[in-house]
Automatic annotation (TrEMBL):
Span of domain Nuclear condensin complex subunit 3 C-terminal: 579-922
Biased composition (Basic and acidic residues): 696-728, 1101-1113
Upper taxonomic lineage: Eukaryota, Sar, Stramenopiles, Oomycota, Peronosporomycetes
Entry's localization field: Chromosome
Cross-referenced SUPFAM superfamilies: ARM repeat
Segment forming the signal sequence: none
Cellular component per GO, a single term: condensed chromosome
Coiled-coil region(s): 524-568
Source organism of the structure: Phytophthora nicotianae P10297
Biological process terms in GO annotation: cell division; mitotic chromosome condensation
Name this protein carries in UniProt: Nuclear condensin complex subunit 3 C-terminal domain-containing protein
Amino acid sequence: MDAEWTLTLREVFQDVQLQAVEASGYLRNPSGVAHQRTLVPAVRRLNTLFNDEVKDGKRGVVEEAFVLFLDEIWLAMARVLVAPKVSDVVLLAVASFVGEFLRRTSNKSKELKGKDELRMELLKRLMDATKAEDRAVRLRACHMLQIVVNRLEYIEGELETQLKATMLKRLNDKLTSVRIQSIYGLKNLQNPVEDEEDEVTQELRKLMVSDPSKDVRKAALLNLTVSKKLYQDLLIRIRDASEDVRYAAFRTIGSSMPLEDIPISDRAHLLDQGLQDRAARVRRACEQMVLKKWFPECDSSPVLLLKALDIEQYPEIGSKVSRLLLKHFSEQPRALLEKEGVVEFNALDMMSQNSDAFNAESIFFWREQCYYYQKIDNDPDKAAALVPNVSGFSKMLVATCKAESDVLFIAQQLLEFGHLLDFQDEFGRRNLLDALQKLLREIDTDSQLIKGIMELMAFVYSGSSEQEFIQVVAEVISDMYDPVEVGNQDVSASQQEDSEVSSSQQDTSTEDETTGLSFGPQLRKLSDEDREAAEAKFEELEKHLETLEFDSEEYNKVQAEMVALEALLQDPRVLSWLRCLEIVAQLLKLTSHNLSDPIVDGMSRYILPAIDSDVPALREAGLENLGLFCLLDKRLAERYLIVFWRALNNPEEESEVKHTCVQSILDMAFSFTNLQPHIFGTKLAEDTGDNEEEKDERGNDTESQETSKEGDKSDDRDGDNSGDKDKAEDEDMEKDDEAEPVVGVEKLDLDTIFVGLGQLISVDDVDLQSTIVEGFCRLFMMNRIDNITVLAILLETYFSPKLQKVQKQSEHGFQSRSLQLLSIFFPAFVMATSANCMLLEEAATHLIQKSMEKLQMESDSMLDLGACSKYVMHLLNHNEQEEVAAIQTSRKKRAKKPERRRCAHHNRIGITICLEMLALEKVAAMASIHHDVVISRQKALLKMIAWVEVTLDEQRSAALFKYLLQEITTSCFDSQRGLLRSAEAVLKRTSASYSEQSTEQSEDQTTALEHDQSWAHDLVKEREEVLHKVLLKASADHEKWLKKQEREKKAQRRRNARYVSSGSSDSSDSESDEEGDEEPDTAPARRELSSRRSKTAAVSRMHEKEGEFDARIKQALQADDADEEDEEEWDDEDSESESEGDDESDAEEEDGEEEEGDDDE
């Protein structure tokens, strides 16, 4: 009987495997209903066999039959595990079959007796199989175990603990496939909801973030149970390098996270990354997340979806989502849209029927609809039904722009909407232009609307004449600026009045003057005391605002009070001048005319006076306009470049002004080649009254001389020495006309400006840093700059430890924009031309030398020279570049084969490193040079030279490099065996590579090598002199640091010894007290008594001990004070001895201190 049912059991397993091989439906749908249906007959047969042969109704199970049944099932599974070749469908079928047989839905479900023991025993054997040394067996065991475990809906607590422990170990397996199967097995064993520190969840999170295999990261991401705590880690994966991981991230977020649980900033980040991903399937996954998940959650309403995305803060994201929805509507049949509950949105009809529908989201989607049907879908009928007439639009625009600031976004959208109108209606066109001119003239119009108004005016006039647009705008600017000039003249006239005028008359004249001005809000004139009090109050509120919670009741109250004070302090003249400069800036951006147009040329009368203003806002606007003005003519750019340079170097200047100066300088460098900046200074002439000497040597006109004076004024404000001198001379000239000024021209090197900009990269302002880095990257790629110092600064910035720490700027895992730019720039720069490779080589040489000249080599701000050298050597190794070029040319049938770049960048950089080593070794032998200072530099150089690969494309440099390495191994590192072994290893590798590539040397090569050797020794002497000065100072600083450390150690040892002695005396006293207390311990009758007398004695004894302890502490503190006084006297003596320069006595004192320290130890 036993043999018969065991044969039946084997037949069941054979049928399952045979059916899997024939149908192969297991892999196509391994977890679907069809897959489970194919296993139902086999599971029934096995359950019947277990019920008939193993189960005993009264006693549970038959022991012998149970053991035999278990062995037979395990034998069938083990055959699959250890077979040489097994199809995946067979393993999947067997594992699924066993999982269905052992399945238990809950702890209360009824099942055959003995199933629990059978399940426990089979799973234990599978867990043991996962520890097999054979890779195939270990992988199959993990695969089978995860399938069986995922089939079990209920797992006992003890078994669950064992499964976790087993699979967690497999997460660290060296096989990628084993780690993946273990991840799938742990999917249902995590519980982050009840336990936030769930071990399984944390391990899966770690793999998702840091595993080198993209398949492991993807598996961890798909099987991780998403919670609010793990959501941020999941969000970072949408920027993963692998397309599959990014696709899985969007699918997981779309299925696991409802829209309301995702913060608004994260929603914008998700769409910004997903909708413009370079992979089409990733973009499609993001689109499906919006259409299938987010849009239905917003009741299939475009307005509600845009409201959930906060389009006022993220308008670009709103445009992408709106066009995605409109594309979806146009592609789907109308009946299907109505079935899904989606109704086409007509914002114009809704706003005409309901005034409450006039909100930011409705206007935004209305504009997007019109743009989509006009420009993308090319459906004129739908566009005509949505676009209003020009007259009605003008009324709506004026009413919105004059409203409060809460509809500012709506006004901006309407201004953009104006580009979609039909301007065939001449009456409506004129009404719109008149309305726009009035908005420009009104000072109450918000500054953020000026750009939109000017762009709409330029668009309307583009159909007729640009010259008319320029004239109209010039009239508006002139009408607004003229009252400012009149007011300034009145003020200057009032200052020249007689001092006998009464204060009441002065007040009256001031009021009349203010009333006569027709621009801006009519603000009351504040006295000096009131203005100072208001400014002090404003600063106090500004400091208080930083301590309050954002958007709280008190925060809003303080902010409203600050706005009222700011309005009180505003000067109407300044407001009008700022509005003029805003309009001028937009005109210079929108016009295509140059300085040949007299109206455009006349804009300088509004710009130049603002540069010399004491108001930072005016100065910033003036510099911005001057930068735009200089882009119209190269001579202007050369003349005024010094203005931006001086303002940039002024330490008292505002950061916004400096940012404007940087952008203007870079724009001029982009626009013009071979810029030659000038500094216009003034010199006293020997002959008075000579008008010809007042002219510019280059023949500048009167306006150029006026602008040069404005530049000098700006220079004087920036605090430059030459500017101060010029200012003093100008004042002397104004006081007495004894001499006339001569305008002289001084050259300003453009490389000096670029190096100065490069030094600003290290500032804490991340925006300014990224602006400079982006500008330099563009200039290098445009071949406008070839300064190796600037390139070295960019290279140092890329490996800056400070910048590496701020890679993650927010919860989205953003990297620094500067690092992103440089990571793209350097490979593209090297691939462009061979001259660029030479520039990078020279920049690396410069960086190596400057790094050796730094005083501190082991500080936190020091860049990793080893990593920098590895990256540079990788870029300058052209093997990979040749492979890429070969692939590209192979795609073109008739293309020429790419020429191999023959270069010796590695050789020359290696020579530079060797020269630095030899110079350091000679400096180390000199007096007063500390060995630690030298060793730190030698270690850095050895790390760099390890990445140098010698090449015989240039035999002279290769031979010299090998010779210098031999010199290093024979003459350097006498006391540093570890460094010597590293140098010998480099020499051995270099010699082997040299021998493989070399041929027999000729006499000419030998002679050339001798010349190169003498040249190298001369360079070593030069570097020796430079490094000696640096290392002298570095050694002195290091000696001070060592002395300070030694004094601190001695003071700490004295304190420890004193506390130990006091502690030992306390312990001895306590021991004596305990010995004294031993006598009453021998009399139990006395100890049992509790009288008032015994309490009094105990309290008095405690007070006595406290007094003794306080006395000891006081004595110890006094001794510490005495030690500190001694140390201060010691410091004074050291400083005096150092100032006298007695190096020998210092060395003797140091030796004596070391001997004392050794004795103390």
